Structures are given as C-alpha cells and as structure tokens.
Amino acid sequence: SFAAPDLVAMAYDLPGCLRVMLQCVFEGDLVDFEGRQYSVTALHEDRTASLSPGARRVLLRDCSLIRPEGAFCQKKIRRRQNLELLSCEDHCRVDASGRGSINGSRVGQLDREGCHYLLPMAVSQPVPEGLLVNSLHLSATGMDQGWGNTGDSGLFVYLRRVEGGQVDEPLLGITYDRRRSLSLEHRASSELLRGPFAPQAGDRFLVLLRCPNYPAWSAYCKRLQLAVDCQEQVEEKLPWSLTDQWRGEQERAFFRLWAALAE
Question: 3-state SS of 184-195?
Fold first, then answer.
C-alpha cells in the first residue's frame, strides 16, 4: 500500500512522453525558444504563446516542448447547480380586448399571435459564462378569469439570444386549466435543452402572459420564478506529477502511437 502513490504518479509518465512526441503544449510546460528555456504562461487562439521569464509572446510553432509540466496534471469535472435567474412579484393582467396592465398601470398595444394577446412580464438575468443549462423550472401564481371555459391562457418562456432575436418556439409553458386544478399555484419543467434551444452565455429568458380574445376571458399572474438546472465545468488539480524517470516511457509511447495509427 505504501507504493500506491508512486504507481499513480508513474501513470503520468506515458502521457508525458506522448505529449512531447506530439509537441502538444499546455500552460505550465517547459519549452525551448531560440536556445533558451521558458515556462508557458498562456496559450492564445492565434496560435501564439506567452512565455516567462520576459513576458514574451511568440509563435507556438517556434517553441519546442522539453518537459510536460502543465495542465495534464489537472482534470475537468462538472458540478451541478440550481440557479435562479428571475424572480418577479409584479401583478400582471391581460384581457380578451388586448388590454394589459402591470401593477395597475396600463401598457401599450400588445403583440398578438393568432387569437392570443401576449403581455411581456419579465426578462431574466443573463445566463452566466461557463454554465451549461440543462433544463428550466418555472413556478407562478395566477389564473384565468375564474369562470366559464378554461385551458387556453397562461405563461410561456422564450429564449432571447444575446446577439439579438428570439427563438420562435417557447421553451416552457404553464396553462391555466381549472378542469385539471383549481389551485392558483403552478409549476412546470422543461425537457433537456439541446440544439437550437440550448441557451448560451449571455442569453436571457422572456416570460409572456397569454390570453385569447374569447369574449370575457382574462388572465393574471402575480408571482413568477424561473430557475435553471445547469452544469459548471471546473478544473481540479491532481496531486501527482511526472516522476524523475518519465523519459523511460518513450519506447512504450512510440508503440502506443504506432498502434493508434493502425486502428
């Protein structure tokens, strides 16, 4: 059991040799540039590297990897979290004539989609950088006019892109339907968001209150919360590093590369 740490550390020797053979440079590596040794402090999208000492920025192709001391000693892990992006307690109302109000104050002319009037209620905070949004969770307090027919008014969540524009299809919705429930409290969750519906950093969510133009219909909402289930990718430094004999794995590294070419 006392030898276990050394065995784990040696697991880095073979990847280290492979990286040197492929000249795969990471931040923290030791490289040769114009006959001198430097440590790589940053890699840039234009295929340049910042070197220390001297704060030099040079072409990556002009560097030769000497010792792979960098980020391969880290692993990326995903952490799940639930993040609230919107909380609103404005009292919003829209009726069958297209009259909309927020906290008793009339709003301008509402957009219309088919027979439905749409009242913009609130816009969320932007999706933070570095988060992968998996699903949405919407909770609200509201109802339709409370008598007569039901089941065609409610709330809808749309994705508003950071560069402008809006995804046409709603990501999530709540339908007021007294045949299913008389409760004023409503909850809904989305499916896994992928493809054109996948939120990106900086995107926001727009919540609309919808009501049809059927005679005497109306809808209101007086509390709204929107949260996202998301994943954050972070780097965790591992406790081991290359052994002093790491170059002894060069032969195994060569045969592994050769075998990979044959596959």
Answer: CEEEEECCCCCH
Beta strands in 24-152 (DSSP E): 30-33, 36-43, 48-52, 56-59, 64-67, 74-88, 92-95, 100-102, 105-106, 111-113, 116-123, 131-144
As a whole number of angstroms, the distance between CA 12 and CA 18 comes to 10
Q: Bridge-partner residues for 135, per DSSP?
A: 229
Sheet with 48-52, edge to edge strand ranges: 56-59, 48-52, 36-43, 30-33, 64-67
**CA pair distance 108, 110, nearest whole angstrom:** 6
Of 109, 163, 170, nearest to 136 by C-alpha is 170
Q: Which residues contact 58 (CB under 8 A, 6 or more apart)?
A: 33, 48, 49, 51
Cα–Cα distance for residue pair 116/218, rounded to 1 Å: 11
Token digits for 255? 């045969």
Q: What is the pLDDT of residues 151-202, one digit of tens each?
A: 999 999 999 998 887 888 899 999 999 999 999 999 999 988 888 788 988 9
For the full predicted model, state whether its pTM sits above 0.85.
no
φ and ψ at residue 8, rounded to 5 degrees:
-65, -45
- Contact (CB, 8 A) for 188 and 174: yes
Tokens of 84: 């609230």
Instruction: Give the amino acid at 254.
Output: F
Q: Is 139 helix (H, G, I), strand (E, B) or coil?
A: strand
Q: What is the pLDDT of residues 206-222, one digit of tens each?
A: 999 999 999 999 999 99
